[in-house]
Amino acid sequence: MLKVDNISLYYGAAQALRGVSLTAEPGKVTCVLGRNGVGKTSLLRAMVGQYPIAGGAITFDGVDISSLKPYERARRGMSFVPQGREIFPLLTVEQNLKTGYAPLKRDQRNIPDDVFSLFPVLQSMLGRRGGDLSGGQQQQLAIGRALVMRPKVLLLDEPTEGIQPSIIKDIGRAIAYLRSLGTIAIVLVEQYLDFACELGDNFAVMDRGAVKFTCDRSNLDPGEISRAMAL
Ligand SMILES: Nc1ncnc2c1ncn2[C@@H]1O[C@H](COP(=O)(O)OP(=O)(O)O)[C@@H](O)[C@H]1O
Ligand SMILES: [Mg+2]
Predict the structure, then answer these.
(1) How far apart are the CA of 39 and the centre of ligand 1, in A?
(2) Which atom, in ligand 1's list, is nearest to the CA of 43?
(3) Is the per-residue pLDDT at 231 higher than 90?
(4) What's the order of all strands across the beta sheet hosting 2-11?
């Protein structure tokens, strides 16, 4: 279990996170919602160690990982699909996937079958350059690369942003499958409310760097979330 406890984060003098707490459990999808600029990406960056927190703690299976470097968190199974995908445009699809080997031991360095069964297009385009793929295909590649790392925690930052509906469906199916494995804690940052409501087990709505509203699947009211997002 990944636990974010009362963290704060500053960019210079500007505070981007104010006492944010969140938990992510294996086999569950934890959704973080909120408009542009409320701190969703900052929260994920803090979780993977791309930006230092100024207060609070992040623990993973009971161990405080707050001061670990990003590569150390990756070795422990934290895998990040960044907003805007950040694939390598000049590398082939296969080379992009293999960048996910970095945190793995030598005997684990292969591409799991799940990557190609979830996203068959990647198999058929293995030799193509990442930059030649459509936006939706690049998003599938970014998720595939994250899966190569055998994640225990998978963090997805707005995976549906700017993606065509048919590929959004594929991505939704992939997330539902990964959740059904029961071994991966998934944190899904989204602005697309219907997509999040379909997949989510727990929901946190952020506003101005803080969590303003939470609920879970049992008391989910999309209208209420939508109002919280419009605050
Ligand atoms: N590297 C940065 N330096 C300074 N300010 C930043 C930086 N990244 C984000 N911000 C600011 O922090 C706030 C939260 O941004 P962000 O976490 O990207 O929000 P979201 O992902 O919800 O759109 C915004 O006001 C944004 O302008
Ligand atoms: Mg963002």
Answers:
(1) 6
(2) 17
(3) no
(4) 14-24, 2-11, 55-60, 63-64
The pair of structure tokens assigned to 43 is 């929260």
For residue 139, name the pLDDT band (cuts at 50, 70, 90): very high
pTM value > 0.90: yes
Our count of domains for the chain comes to 1
Give the Å distances, CA to CA, from 41 to 32, 47, 121, 151, 187.
10, 10, 28, 19, 12
Separation between Cα atoms, residue 144 and residue 152, nearest integer Å: 14
pLDDT, tens only, 191-219: 999 999 999 999 999 999 999 999 999 99
Distance 190 CA to ligand 2 centre (A): 9
Question: Could you list the residue range(s) of the whole structural domain that residue 187 is in?
Answer: 2-229
